[in-house]
Amino acid sequence: MAGGFGKRMHPLTSNIPKPLVPVCMKPVMEYVIALLKKHAVTDLVVLLHHQPHLVKEYFGDGSSYGVKIEYVFAGEDYGTAGAVKFAEKHLKETFLVISADLLTDIDLRKAIDFHRSKRSQSTIVLTSVPDPLEYGIVITDDVGRIKHFLEKPSWEEVFSDNINTGIYILEPEILSFIPEKKFFDFSKDLFPKLLLKKIPFYGFVSRGYWKDIGNLVEYMRAHKDAVEKGLLLCEKGVSPGAKVSSSAKLKGNILIGEGTYVGDGSFIEDSVIGAGCSIGRNARITKSIIWDSVEIGKDSDLSACITASSAILGERVKLEEGCVIGEGCVIGSDSTVKSYVKLWPAKTVEEGSIVNSSMIWKQRWAKSIFGQYGVTGSCNVELTAEFAAKLGSAFGAMLGKGSSVTSSMDGHKASRMISRGLLSGLLSAGVNVSNLETVPAPINRFELKAMRSKGGIHVRRSPFDRNIIDIKFFGPDGTDLSSGKEKEIEKLFWGEDYERPSIDETGELSFPYYRVAEGYKEAVLNFVDIAAIKSKNFKIVIDYSYGSASQIFPSILGEFGCDTVALNAYIDESKFTKSRDDFERSLKQLSQIVVTLKADIGIMFDAGAEKIFLVDEKGRVLDGYMSLLLFVSLVSSYGPKKSIAVPVTASSVVEEIAAKNNISVIRSRASLHSIMETASSADVQFLGEDTGGYIFPEFHPSFDAMLSSVKLLGLLANCACPVSSVIENIPRRNMAKDSVPCPNALKGAIIRKFFEENKDGRSSLIDGVKIELGRDWVLISGHPDKQEVMIYAESDSARTAKEIALKYYEKVKSIVASQLSK
Questions:
Q1: Contact at 8 Å (CB) between 257 and 25?
Q2: In this structure, are residues 666 and 684 in contact, taking their beta carbons and an 8 Å threshold?
Q3: For residues 251 and 269, what is the distance between their CA atoms, to the nearest angstrom?
Q4: What is the rounded CA–CA span in Å between residue 294 and residue 273?
Q5: Peptide bond before 153: cis, by omega within 30 degrees of 0?
Q6: 252: helix, coil or strand?
Q7: More confident of the two residues 514 and 561
């Protein structure tokens, strides 16, 4: 019987069928074949279902093992008895049924002799175990005839400690009681029928060793038993082809396979190490099972765990008791996998991570929960309701009992699910929550102060990937949490070491949507020159991108007397995420409508109402680069004489425009958090970046598509000229960018190398290293989330910009290759 899925053995059986799972470096089915051959059972029929080709490839026709093997493949799961019925044409005489995942030394010849002596039609091999709850229990009379049979009883139902081993000796006539191509089980269906019909049915009690390797705990025990019971199919100890350092220490029952290397000072106790492994110096491995071709870095510590083939463990990795590492996993240096955590095959754990929950579907475990866009992950994979509840509880614990939080979401059903998980966690931490429900994030950010909340959360479907959910966390001023606060939440999340409130201290939930929406509207109207905008009678086309701003912004626009054409002005959760093609198609449609209607401007919101994308009155789509320069030009000319701020990646044209108006420019780092931090702390009137995000700090230090739109209308009203005229007067320069794959550990060294090479020239370290090349420049910066180094270059010539980017691309690539070869 070799067709089971072995689900209780996952992740070990994710890529291989259970019969091929190794016990002491040999597939468990090989032990079964050896037992059958020992007792002169050499004509074998192997019943296959799950991953059948792998079993056939390994065992072939059986000649290498001294037996003859025929294979029968059942395309469907017919149950244990139904699968045997499927092989009926091969079973013309007394036959024995045995599972391919047993470890036993039961005397099968005695069982067969017993069966024949009793003239039995069906005989079950029985054995006694101290805990029979997981097995079928059996009572026999004085001559061995089975009187009672009960599958998986509870303790109050237990009437014997003799259990069904899953080894049966049957006569071909028994197959007539099994229906064809229907699910039929030996224990649940066939055996009760035999008792009812009073068919000769016996139990042979054996006192030999028997182990059903049904789960990971039994799998671990089977290794210990195989050594101690003398069941091994290989020599105990160190294989002749292994190389063990003279300073390494081996203790207890040890098996080490061919070609394995054990480094200086390593300690191995009561463990099985497969073939072709590499154990770094001073590694410590106790009571563990290591499959073939595993690499274990120096100073690593493995305790009572299982590591499948071809896994790579970096230096100083700690695997705690009971954890299971799937085939081909890569665990970065200085990482810890906590007790009983399972990693499915081919997963990656970043350096310095602490993995405290199993990785099944997601591919990578990052050492930090927070990333560039808050907490992000695949819905119901990385981000589950359980994860959200725990994260909300950790956030609440950081804020403290009795604190208040505002929450909002984009209206997608998955966002609602994650949001409710977060709310449950916050309430469980004794935090009061004002749930704004479906509103844009900018409104949540703005209203935090008015509501005297200590923090906020916003959940959205990612604008970049339809399977991803983003969770944004805000501080009391509405900006993103500082990295220090993020780390504090992470520490509480991993450790769960915080006080839980009593039942009477549970947080309260309220829904102040209408008051908040009216408060935001009033603030926007007070921030802009309504009369100036009204006087121009603007005709505008606005694409709401199916987001929640469509429920709020029309009432604000109505106060300005604009002739407004609204597109996609309703919530459609299926369209929150746009592909690049969708995005460009929407802008093209907006452009056509602007020209057709002879509108003054076209504005497209992102679904979250944080960023805007522009089309001028001639239908020309403005890229992010030109839109930023449009704002810089208007703000510098018609705003107060305060500084403006842009990221270090923005064009140097910003300085040219600002200088004409005696306005100073502040450069910030490119990350969203750094942009908001600059807007909050610096005395600036405007901060913008080149992907559609604009901030007017006097109103609020965060991106806001609604405010940006009305502020743009106000600036255009003061300018009294069309958008295209402003654009035509902006100087032109060209930018190019590229990226080089680079491990996180090398990013700092690369930046330092370029800075040292250019420290006598015009270079700066705002975000990476920016090198001035006359009027041209190049920026080398580590990507905040990805293992990449980014390269940005600017020149008067597009060709020169590309050449500069390529030159430094090759330089970075060469340095990375050189470092990795060391």
A1: yes
A2: yes
A3: 5
A4: 9
A5: no
A6: coil
A7: 561
**Alpha-carbon dihedral angle through residues 376, 382, 383, 385, given to the nearest 10 degrees:** -170
- Residues in CB range of 475: below 8 A, 6 or more apart: 455, 481, 482, 485
- 204-239 pLDDT, tens per residue? 999 889 988 888 999 999 998 888 888 888 888 999
Q: Rounded CA gap, 496 and 382, in Å?
A: 19
Distance CA 352, CA 318 (A): 11
Answer for the pair 1, 19: CB distance below 8 angstroms, yes or no: no
Q: How far apart are the first and last CA of the chain?
A: 50
- The alpha carbon of residue 526 and the mean position of all alpha carbons in its chain are separated, in whole angstroms, by 44
Distance, CA of 49 to CA of 235 (rounded, Å) = 32
Beta bridge partners of 169: 96, 123
pLDDT of 29 reads 96
Give tens-digit pLDDT for 477-491: 999 988 889 989 988
Q: Is 102 left (phi over 0), alpha (psi -120 to 50) or beta?
A: beta
CA–CA separation, 327 vs 25, rounded Å? 15
pTM assigned to the model: 0.67
Cα gap 464→471, rounded to integer Å: 14
Distance, CA of 219 to CA of 229 (rounded, Å): 15
Determine the Cα angle at 486 with ends 481 and 492, to 5°: 135
* Residue found under tokens 């069309």: 722
The radius of gyration of the chain's CA atoms, rounded to the nearest angstrom, is: 35
- Taking the C-alpha atoms of residue 408 and residue 520, their distance in angstroms, rounded to an integer, is 15
**Proportion of the chain above pLDDT 70, given as a percent:** 96
How many angstroms separate the Cα of 336 from the Cα of each of 295, 321, 345, 487?
16, 11, 17, 17
Tokens of 233: 């199919």
Residue 598 makes CB contacts below 8 A (sequence gap 6+) with 539, 617
Do 815 and 789 form a contact (C-beta atoms < 8 A)? no
Q: How many CB atoms lie within 10 A of CB 799?
A: 10
